[in-house]
Every structure is written in C-alpha cells, then in structure tokens.
Amino acid sequence: MTDPYGFLRTPRRPVPPRPVEERLNDWHEVYAGQTLLPLVSEQAGRCMDCGIPFCHNGCPLGNLIPEWNAYASRGDWRAAAERLHATNNFPEFTGRLCPAPCEEACVLALNADPVTIKNVEQAIADEIWERGYAPPHPPHRLSGKTVAVIGSGPAGLAAAQQLTRTGHTVVVYERADRLGGLLRYGIPSFKMEKHQIDRRIEQMLAEGTKFRTGADVGGELDAGELRRRHDAVVIAVGAGERRELPVPGRELTGIHQAMDYLTFANRVVEGDYATPPVTAEGRHVVIVGGGDTGSDCLGTALRQGASSVVQLDINPEPGRERTEAHPWPTYPKVYRISHAHEEARGREGTDPRLFSSATLAFEGDPAGRVRALHLTEVEPQARRPLPGSERVLPAELVLLALGFSGPERDSGLRTQYGLALDDRGNFARDGAFAAEGAEGADGADGVFVAGDAGRGQSLVVWAIAEGRAAAAATDRYLTGTTTLPAPVTAHDRPLVA
C-alpha cells in the first residue's frame, strides 16, 4: 500500500493546465508539455488503500485504482500499466475525457479532498506509451469465427480489441473517412489530440483487427448482407439523433447543430480545410445547452476568435457543495468550471454561462441571417418562463448543444435488422447486450448492441465498459463460453441515491 499517513501529510494538488493565454493560441491539449511527474506520484501516495474502495463503484470499468495508485506512488510504471490495462483498453482516452466519478466516490471525499485519480490515470497512460508498455497482443490461435463491429468509437474499438485478442477475426466498419467516431470529430483536439487514437489503431492493426472506413452500413452497405458474411455483429454506432429547438426563427442562416460545428473545426486541425465552413471568428456566439458539448463549442469559439460567447443553461446554477439529494459516493450536481469556462472567464472576468435561461425565438436580418436571440429566465423546477425576464442577446452564430435522443432514426440498421426501440428511443436489448427484434422480425439473431446506441448518450468510460461486456456476450454466443470480462450489464446505471 502507499504511505498510510499520506492523505494527512499531503494536500490535494491537481496538475495545473497550461496558462490560458498560451493555450488559446493553439489546438494542443490543455496539459500538453506539462510535467506530470513527480507531482502525480506524490498525489498517488494520498490513496488510503481502503478496505472497501468505493472508487471501484464510481467507475463502471471497475478500475483497480488503489493498486495502480500504489505502483504509481513508487514509480513502478510497468506494474501500474499492467493493472490499469487489466480493466481498461484505452486509459489515455478516459484519463483525458472522463469527468472522474471515481474521485467523487473516493472515501476521502467524505470529509476531505479526494485523490487526483484522473491525473494519476493520465500519467500512467502517458508512461505506458513513453516506455513501450503497450505492445500488440495478437491471439495465439484463431477461432475461425468472424465478427463485424459497426462503429469505431470507444465502445466499438473496445469490443473489437477484446474479440480480436480472444481469437476471432474482427472487421470494424466506420461510416466516416477516419476512425474514432466522436473521439475523432466530436472531441476538440485541445481535450485530446488525435495521435492518441492513431497509435491505438496501429496497435489493433498489429493484433489483427481489420478496419473499413467509408462503410455506411444500413445505407450503401446492406446490413443484412453484412450479417450473412459474419458469424456475429456488434452495433456500436452511438447516439446520433440530435435534439432540436423548435422555436420561431430556427430556419435562419447561422444556426447550426453543435456536432457539425465541432466536426468542421476538427477537420481543420486534421488538414482537410484551410478554414472551417462555419467559424466563430469575429462573431457574437450563443451556445444553447449547458453540457460538455456546449463547453467544447465554447473552447472552440474562443480559439477561433469570437467577439463574444454566451452559453445558455436551462438548469439553475448548482451550489458549491453536495446536497442531501446527491450524497456520497454518488456523482453530485455541483458548480463546476471546465477548462473552456476558465478560458472565457479569464477573458471577460465573468462566467460565460447564463443559468435558468431558455430560448424563446431567433431574430434575423432582411437577408435571413440570425442576428439576435430572445431568451427568458425560467422557474427552477417547472421550467416555465418568468414574466418580465425576457431579454435579447446579439447572436451572429448560434450553436445547438442540446444532446442526443438515441441512434439515428432513419438508420437502415433498424429496418434491415428489424431492431426494436426501447422507451427512450435506443436500440432495445436484453441484459446481455443481444439486440431485440421488433415484432415479427428475425434479423436480430447474433446481433449485439454496445455503447450509446443502446444506453443513450453517456460517458466514454461507460462506452468502453459496454464494449468489453458486449465482447464477452458475443464470444459466449460464438463459442458457448467466455473468459472475457463483463464489467457491466446492458441495464446497469450509474450509482445514484
């Protein structure tokens, strides 16, 4: 174990990001070039190696956090890498992108500051690549079975790697021109640079996984034919059905879905465009939606040189401390500042978010371009407009970051496999990830659903957990048994009060 008095002797010290004025001038990660060691090893020493490590419950992957904390505190990076990879295929993704519910479940969080688990995880992941601790692990023998994985986001990649390593021949089909799903085009490079994806793909190729880009399964590529060519199929297409904002003026030019905007910005970084087709440069920007996607749009707009940026959140401003409604070890709804919010505050001196705010209408100029957004304050619970609170914001670019409501409704996958939908609009499945067919349909046999396509929009750590579990279910279907781990069932949910 670590120093039994470490949590008493050492205060919590997260790794500081790069200065705001520096990182706003590039697209590199906010921690790029920052020294993680020896600070991280010192912070790992605060772990108490609890008798009941509730951090395991906060993480759907069941990461062995006290174990790799102990190794990191001693600088034993090979052992730390082995324990981290035991439960997580892609710790470099989660160490950068996960909001760390494990930290809120840390026993120290009961009455003190939790261990900086996310920083430790990222440090171990970086040391894994720096020291060559992520060699390919091709199977010792092939099973003779083939599996198609549709979608190359974190769920699809995790399922593919697990199935390949156990001996099945796996082909990953990706509709886009590059691999990675939302990791590639939905996550800005300042949160995760894309070489993190590329080197994992290289590892998977060396292990034997095959990849096909530009493959629109259910569209140009018939899903039924794909099923006939493979012994099983794993659907991991994500939740791509974007929520809309049906208010007057929605048809005006200059109002875009957030994911389109982020994709354009990422393609500039990839070298596809010299300038993005949609840019915030010199414009008054309003982001409708208070979640992570809205925060990503905020950081992107600041880097593009927006004149001003405001983010609207229909929810009331959370408090700074846990309430009885969110007791430990659940993930509490408290006031949080993302790196993008920090960047905006450094520029304007105030939080760019307007809480308890809803959009009433958009106003345009004679040419049909959006020029203003009419908003109102809303009641905290009922979300009804408060009379007399209406106001107008200048808006030359509006980004809708309202989340997603399941897989794309017009996807050919649903009709060609005869898939049923659950009451939340996701592909229905049983507890073991097997797809359920609509009444009278029989095309779903041997078809499994992993990630946001079955769960609904969620965290990267849940996507990887689901990919691993779906791989175990698929392996059992193909061989009658499995030794692959299944950290979650299809119906598991985050820890709540």
Compile the SSE list and pairings:
Elements: H1 6-9, H2 20-23, H3 39-44, H4 55-58, H5 65-74, H6 77-85, H7 91-97, H8 101-104, H9 117-130, E1 146-150, H10 154-165, E2 169-173, H11 182-185, H12 195-207, E3 210-212, H13 223-229, E4 232-235, E5 255-257, H14 258-270, E6 284-288, H15 292-304, E7 308-312, H16 339-348, E8 353-354, E9 357-364, E10 370-377, E11 391-394, E12 397-400, H17 412-417, E13 447-449, H18 452-455, H19 460-479
Parallel strand pairs: 1-2, 1-4, 2-3, 4-13, 5-12, 6-7, 6-12, 7-8
Antiparallel strand pairs: 9-10, 10-11
Helix pairs in contact: 5-6, 5-9, 6-9, 7-9, 10-19, 14-15, 15-16
Write up this protein:
There is one protein chain. By secondary structure, the chain is an alpha/beta fold. It is built from 19 helices and 13 strands. Helix 7 (91-97) packs antiparallel against helix 9, helix 10 packs parallel to helix 19 and helix 15 (292-304) crosses helix 16. The radius of gyration is 23 Å and the shape is globular. This is Glutamate synthase subunit beta. Pathway: Amino-acid biosynthesis. It holds the Pfam family Fer4_20. Residues 1-20 are annotated as: Disordered.
Question: What is shown here, in short?
Answer:
Pathway: Amino-acid biosynthesis. The chain has 497 residues and is of the alpha/beta class.
Features:
497 residues; alpha/beta; five-stranded parallel sheet; 19 helices; 12% strand; Helical_ferredxn; Glutamate synthase subunit beta; FAD/NAD-binding_dom; oxidoreductase; glutamate biosynthesis
